[in-house]
Description:
- One of its GO terms (cellular component) is cytoplasm.
- This is Transcriptional regulatory protein.
- GO terms for molecular function: DNA binding; DNA-binding transcription factor activity; phosphorelay response regulator activity.
- It comes from Sporosarcina limicola.
- Its main location: cytoplasm.
- There is one protein chain.
- The strands form two sheets. A five-stranded parallel beta sheet has the order 2-1-3-4-5, sandwiched between helices.
- It folds into two domains: about 5-140, Response regulator (Rossmann fold); about 155-220, Winged helix-like DNA-binding domain superfamily/Winged helix DNA-binding domain (Arc Repressor Mutant, subunit A), CATH 1.10.10.10.
- By secondary structure, it is α/β, with parallel strands linked by helices.
- The protein has nine helices and seven strands, in the order βαβαβαβαβαααααββ.
- The two termini are about 40 Å apart.
- About 45% of the residues lie in helices and about 20% in strands.
- β4 (about 80-85), α4 (about 90-95) and β5 form a beta-alpha-beta unit.
- The protein has helices at about 15-25, 40-50, 65-75, 90-95, 110-130, 135-140, 155-170, 175-185, 185-200; strands at about 5-10, 30-35, 50-55, 80-85, 100-105, 205-210, 215-220.
- α7 (about 155-170) packs across α8 (about 175-185).
- It is globular and about 65 Å long.
Amino acid sequence: MTKISVFIVEDDPMVLDVNKGFLEKMTGFTFIGAAANGKDALLQIKKLKPNLVLLDMYLPDISGLDILVELRSARVPCDVVMITAARDAITIQEMMRLGAVDYLVKPFRFERFQKSLQDYYKMAKKIGGLNQLRQEDIDEWLGSTGNSVSLPKGLNELTMKQIMLGLVGEALPVTAEQLAQNVGMARVTVRKYLDFLAVKEKVHIEMQYGNVGRPTRFYSLK
């Protein structure tokens, strides 16, 4: 396939230069433009129709969320990776519901940026060559970005992504019951995924002992 065209929306010139530098280190991608505000971004994205948009949340005029809503409403055929300092669970979940393929929280290292775009390239290349997708293709696409944990049989990529997103927005450690309420799942399901993540050293467990009964487990991202 031809190179994937990338458009960057970022109002900080230094951050823009860093992201452009990261992009230039990678093969298979070509930078086609940038915008420092939402109005210009929408005009240029609709005109250029890039394959992929690297989109900041906080802009001088409108938010990245507003831009993504407008792009989806106008059915602009582009994918979006969010690159922002926003960490609250509500914002992240809303972005994912609107179809963002990944969410990079500033500051991040080149390795995380590289993984995100490599995963995107791999699946864009694969899907671009198919007329119809198998269930395995769909599952691989939906679970390919943002989560480097290899799951055993019985655990689901999409459920894992929801739980990880729920943890991202928590400023303090939470119990499995609290997180289950926040993400709308059963406590026993959330507990199973959290304990697996703890074994993989992706989640930290803090035991708090009361006067009676078993200690309470509190979970947080490492």
